[in-house]
Amino acid sequence: MIKIMKKTFGKDDYKYDFSFVPKKDMKEFLKRAKKNWKDAIKKSKINEYFKDYILNEKVRGRLAEFMKKELKIDKKSEVLDIGSGMGALTIALARRFKTVGTDVNPSTLEFIKHRAEQEKINLALFHISPLHKGLPFKKESFDVVLMNGVLEWVAFKIEGDVKKIQEKVLKNIFRILKKNGIFILAIENRLALDWFKGKTSHIPIKYVDLLPRKIADFVCKIKRGKKFRTYIYSKFGYEKMLKKVGFGDVEFYEAYPNYQKPKWIKKTNNLFANSFIIVCKKI
Ligand SMILES: C[S@@+](CC[C@H](N)C(=O)[O-])C[C@H]1O[C@@H](n2cnc3c(N)ncnc32)[C@H](O)[C@@H]1O
Q1: How many domains does the chain have?
Q2: Quick check: pTM over 0.85?
Q3: Residues framing ligand 1 (Cβ under 6 A)
Q4: Which end of the chain is more exposed for a tag (fewer CB within 10 A), N or C?
Q5: Which residues contact residue 127 at a Cβ distance below 8 angstroms, ignoring those fewer than 6 apart?
Q6: CATH value at residue 242
């Protein structure tokens, strides 16, 4: 039986309720998932795109396969997945490596627990505090740390300088990585061609990622009553930020059409790719 371990810093006043299942339906959903996780997804009101996001492990697990085949990460490696969400990628990682899944949301962790138990997959699960408070692991604990679609959210619900908060989170990741450990960051590109065409990333306001931050703040304040908080960066921006924190050997891969459901992942110099998988090292 898998136990969800609670490793939070003090009492959490922070609620991040990301989940495809509305809060009011969560209890019933988890009751069903305890019996049959797939059935719970199929019978839920989650839309088809997101059902596939959870069920389609071939696509959702592509990054895990890439880590094994391209990055040659050993199966004995200890891999930390920060912000596991509904866990499709976490499960794919756990089939290949010694995996630890984490999230601020205990409900989605419970879903992963039911799924892993039913599929007889071994992994450890931790309920953690929001990342701006720190990471509850000792220094040099992991061979690999992965963040898939999470760094952009770490300052969303709190006050303070977004970039500094993101850098603080990255510093903590650096701390818990072993020497020569690998950090993998899957995230959107600020200069994605899609944003120029009017598609949106995290906030449904056209072109907002492309605007200078101060103007983006102004537009968001008017349209949503709150400043722009989901910073993503260009290829140069990510490289600069990761190097500042101490990482080296920074390499960029493009996940096409995006990192959530990649058809392929290839090394890239494309400044306008939609998403990057960034691989760097604690050297
Ligand atoms: C877009 S989901 C990505 C989930 C998963 N990595 C995946 O690729 O399917 C973002 C995840 O980050 C977590 N998250 C968001 N803000 C966070 C914060 N400030 N601290 C810790 N986790 C956070 C959410 O609970 C959620 O599970």
Answers
A1: 1
A2: yes
A3: 16, 18, 83-85, 88-89, 103-105, 108, 130-131, 148-150, 153-154
A4: N
A5: 4, 5, 6, 7, 8, 102, 103, 104, 106, 109
A6: 3.40.50.150
